């Protein structure tokens, strides 16, 4: 396996020099794009779109046809694992994902097992392989999973939650049951990400979307230690090339040093922390990914470009290593597509200028 012709994203994750700052966007294939909406309509539903490798490939490539992005990310959903565990995933219009059989009973938690990704999640591996073929090794493909704690939030609550009443009740009252869920899910995530790597993913990312809802002590015990276990068991190389890993905890700015120490190659940042300050705190231990506020994309193209330049300036000296530009969370469905053009162009142009200044 050789590196893609545009390997700036991989180089940045590995803290190798790059000619400019690479950029991709969380949820870059999504409802803000009219072509995505058309494909989703043809699929019949979001879940059917995820489970159709050809259509998942189609929507993965759509943002790359529009924008000069430096990486593709597999189109899928973080809830594929609990769905494969038999919890009965379904989507309701306007209400998001739900599970028919949330984990509330001790017997169900004791019976929980990690699915074989090559069997129960074969459609994801087929999508990864198809996307890699379609990319013709032009840019890297990112695989991903939700973190054990974030997946457990959905698995126990049965849907998204504003107060995490069920899972936090379990966390404090029956931590043994939650640890059982998290341990099985960590095994499942590890196998799932390794299968994606074996199918062709050239980097992987763990989305800890709800880890920031925890107290400091609970975060270390119920989220961070399980992500560390996963990272420690990931395939680090395939075909002679390093496969870097990214860990992103939304709301995790208080714990950056701890996240940087778990063995991942890069830490994702949300928009609530200054990226220059984050860099000073973690030093050269990891690369950083982020972290413009996604709401900036509702402003004019000129304001979007100005905010992109501000983030790049904040990163500071030595722009040519260790920074992947991204949003601080997923792109909104209400984002004007032309504003993404302004963002990507500003990141590429201004990062080249900053490198010229430093020479």
Helix/strand class = alpha/beta
The outline comes out as globular
In DSSP terms, counting alpha (H) and pi (I) runs of 4 or more, how many helices? 16
Distance between the termini: 33 Å
Q: Could you describe the largest sheet, including whether it forms a barrel?
A: 7 strands, parallel
Query: What integer is the average pLDDT?
Result: 96
**Helicity range:** 40-55%
Which segments are poorly predicted (pLDDT under 50) over 5 or more consecutive residues? none
Q: What is the chain-wise order of helices and strands?
A: HHHHEHEEHHHEHHHEHEEEHEHEHEH
User: Strand portion, in percent?
Assistant: 5-15%
Strand order of the largest sheet: 1-4-5-8-9-10-11
Compute the gyration radius: what is it? 19 Å
Number of extended strands: 11
Polypeptide structure, described:
β6 and β7 form a beta hairpin. It is built from 16 helices and 11 strands. The two termini are 33 Å apart. The mean pLDDT is 96. A 7-stranded parallel beta sheet has the order 1-4-5-8-9-10-11. A two-stranded antiparallel ribbon has the order 2-3. It has 359 residues and is an alpha/beta fold.
Short account of what is shown:
The protein is built from 16 helices and eleven strands. By secondary structure, the protein is α/β, with parallel strands linked by helices. The chain is globular and about 60 Å long.
List its traits.
single chain; 359 residues; alpha/beta; two-stranded antiparallel ribbon
List strands and helices in order, with pairings.
Layout: H1 8-13, H2 34-43, H3 46-50, H4 53-66, E1 72-73, H5 80-84, E2 89-92, E3 96-99, H6 106-110, H7 117-120, H8 122-135, E4 141-146, H9 148-157, H10 165-173, H11 175-199, E5 203-208, H12 216-232, E6 237-238, E7 241-242, E8 245-249, H13 256-260, E9 266-268, H14 275-282, E10 287-289, H15 301-315, E11 323-324, H16 337-358
Parallel strand pairs: 1-4, 4-5, 5-8, 8-9, 9-10, 10-11
Antiparallel strand pairs: 2-3, 6-7
Helix pairs in contact: 2-4, 4-8, 9-11, 10-11, 11-12, 14-15, 15-16
């Amino acid at each position: 396996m050789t590196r893609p012709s545009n390997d700036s994203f991989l180089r940045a994750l590995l803290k190798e020099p790059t000619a400019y700052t690479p950029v991709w966007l969380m949820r870059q294939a999504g409802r803000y794009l009219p072509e995505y909406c058309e494909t989703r309509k043809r699929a019949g539903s979001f879940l059917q779109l995820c489970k159709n490798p050809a259509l998942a490939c189609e929507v993965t490539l759509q943002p790359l046809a529009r924008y000069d992005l430096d990486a593709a990310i597999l189109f899928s959903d973080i809830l594929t694992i609990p769905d494969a565990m038999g919890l009965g995933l379904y989507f309701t219009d306007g209400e998001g994902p739900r599970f028919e059989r949330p984990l509330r009973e001790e017997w169900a938690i004791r019976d929980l097992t990690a699915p074989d990704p090559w069997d129960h999640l074969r459609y994801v591996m087929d999508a990864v392989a198809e996307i890699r073929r379609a990319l013709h090794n032009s840019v890297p493909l990112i695989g991903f999973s939700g973190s054990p704690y974030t997946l457990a939030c959905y698995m126990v609550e049965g849907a998204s939650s504003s107060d995490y009443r069920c899972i936090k009740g379990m966390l404090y009252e029956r931590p043994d049951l939650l640890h059982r869920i998290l341990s099985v899910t960590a095994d499942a995530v590890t196998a799932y990400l390794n299968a994606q790597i074996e199918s062709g993913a050239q980097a992987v990312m763990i989305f800890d979307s709800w880890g920031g809802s925890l107290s400091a002590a609970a975060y270390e015990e119920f989220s961070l230690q399980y992500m560390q276990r996963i990272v420690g068991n990931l395939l680090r190389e395939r075909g002679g090339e390093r496969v870097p890993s990214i860990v992103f905890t939304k709301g995790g700015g208080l714990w950056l040093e701890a996240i940087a120490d778990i063995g991942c190659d890069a830490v994702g940042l949300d928009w609530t922390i200054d990226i220059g300050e984050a860099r000073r705190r973690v030093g050269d231990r990891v690369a950083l990914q982020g972290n413009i506020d996604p709401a900036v994309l509702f402003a004019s193209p000129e304001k979007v470009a100005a905010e992109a330049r501000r983030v790049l300036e904040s990163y500071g000296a030595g722009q040519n290593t260790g920074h992947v530009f991204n949003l601080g969370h997923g792109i909104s469905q209400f984002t004007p597509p032309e504003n993404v053009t302004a963002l990507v162009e500003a990141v590429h142009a201004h990062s080249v200028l900053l490198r010229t200044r430093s020479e």
